[in-house]
# Entry
Amino acid sequence: MNILVSNDDGIDSPGIYSLASALKEIAEVTVVAPHQEQSAAGHAITMQLPLRVTKYYRDKEFFGYAVNGTPADCVKMGIRNILGFYPDLVVSGINNGSNTAINIIYSGTVSAAREAAIMDVPSIAVSVTSHNVKDFSFAARIAKNLSLAVAERGLMKGTLLNVNVPNIPESEIAGIRITKQGKSRWDDIYEKRTDPFGRDYYWLTGNLKQEDNETDMDQGAVKNKFVSITPIHFDLTDYETYNLMKDWNLEHLVNEK
Ligand code: MN
# Structure
C-alpha cells in the first residue's frame, strides 16, 4: 500500500511526524507538506507564485518534501509530480486543533484530504481537539487502524473521512461515533490593538459556540469523549433546495424585462 501524507501545520510539526511514523508500519509513506504553517488556508491553491519543492530532513534523516504552498497544492503536486502515480490513500494531519462543524470549511487539514477526494483517491483527515497537544500517539494509532479499514472496504468516489480525536488520556476515551457535520460556529472577535506607530490593527480570535451536544454530531461526540468520524463530500449541492426550486418555474426570468 502507498500512502501520501500531508497536513496544514507544516512539515516540521510533531503531528505529521507521529502520523507518518504510525503509517510506515502498514505502508510505503511519502510525505509532502507545506514548508510553513498553513492552518485555516482552506482549499486555496497557488496560481500567482512559483512553487518550489525542497527535501526536508529530520534528525539528519530524509523525512519528506516541503512545498512553499498550501495543503491542496501539496496533494496535487505530491500525486502529479513527486509520486507520479495515484497512491492508495491520502492521510492529512495530525492537526493541532479540532476540525469539527464549521471548521471543516476553513481547515487546511481537511482540504488536503478533500483535494485527494477530488482526484478520486480515498482520504482521511485527522485532528486532535487542542492547540497544545502533548501526545499524538493515540490519534496516530486511530489513523493507522482506520487506514487499514478504508483500504479493505474502500470509500465512495468523492468521499473523505474527517476524524476528530478528543485531547484526553486514552483511558478516558468513550468510544467511536460515526457523526454528521455539526452546526457549531464561531463568535468572531477581531481584537483591536495598536502598533508602535500608533496605528490600529486587528487580530482574529473568538469562541466556538457549542451548538451540538448529541453524540451523532462531530462537535457533540468529541465533547462527550468519543472519537468522531464524519464522512464528507466536496459536492456542495443542497439537494433539498434543488428539488424544491424545480417548482419555482423560473423560465419567465429569461423573458421578463
Ligand atoms: Mn492546523
